[in-house]
Design goal:
The complex is a heterodimer of chains A (115) and B (117). With 115 residues, chain A is mainly β. Chain A has strands at residues 3-5, 10-14, 19-21, 24-26, 32-39, 46-52, 59-61, 64-69, 74-79, 88-96, 103-105, 109-114. In chain A, 0% of the residues lie in helices and 54% in strands. In chain A, the strands form three sheets. In chain A, strands 2, 5, 6, 10, 11 and 12 form a six-stranded mixed β-sheet that branches. Chain A is globular, with a radius of gyration of 14 Å. Chain A starts with a strand and ends with a strand. The relative contact order of chain A is 0.34. With 117 residues, chain B is an all-beta fold. Chain B has strands at residues 5-7, 10-13, 19-24, 31-37, 44-50, 53-56, 65-68, 75-79, 88-95, 107-108, 112-116. Chain B is globular and about 40 Å long. The chains are: A mainly beta (115), B mainly beta (117).
Chain lengths: 115, 117
Amino acid sequence: AQKVTQAQTEISVVEKEDVTLDCVYETRDTTYYLFWYKQPPSGELVFLIRRNSFDEQNEISGRYSWNFQKSTSSFNFTITASQVVDSAVYFCALIGTSGTYKYIFGTGTRLKVLA
Amino acid sequence: GAGVSQSPRYKVTKRGQDVALRCDPISGHVSLYWYRQALGQGPEFLTYFNYEAQQDKSGLPNDRFSAERPEGSISTLTIQRTEQRDSAMYRCASSPYGTGLSSYEQYFGPGTRLTVT
């Protein structure tokens, strides 16, 4: 079975603080893909990043960074110097490669950045 | 180019009515997926088409839900005899790939917010 767990339901931080959103996944597939999406109040899903299971390099994009560790089955997301515009629900997701290539989403973490 | 579009964007219906939700994928995309997102949850898979063939319907919750993609392009998700628990955001996604490792590349539409009163 495949599963994505986002244990943090809601996080509140003050603007300019750093915040890390946790994601733990389960899959038996050797090849798989991990994703983070942002869902602002408007409701659309905004793609942030994709990593494949063979690439454990951490990635940084502006204030965003991602830490992928296969040893702990984790794919954590850090926002540095958070801003009010970062307030949204963030979803971690997995696509395995056995069977249908369907997204398995976590339940999301609601991030509130307070001015 | 144009992205995935869905219509209507919002639908309010009374319990017991049938509803049809439409998804227009990116032109030329082979695969089409339907997902449902309940309030406070992540999207959950419903069904998947490769061209016009429904390859996987394991996520459809019961036989009130059906989907079709007769010409391998536009898809319709139909819910018969709607119930309040059907209220959710229904999203579709399309992929340029039918099979193979690149099939992870899916593009989401804006969703249809269904409210059953």
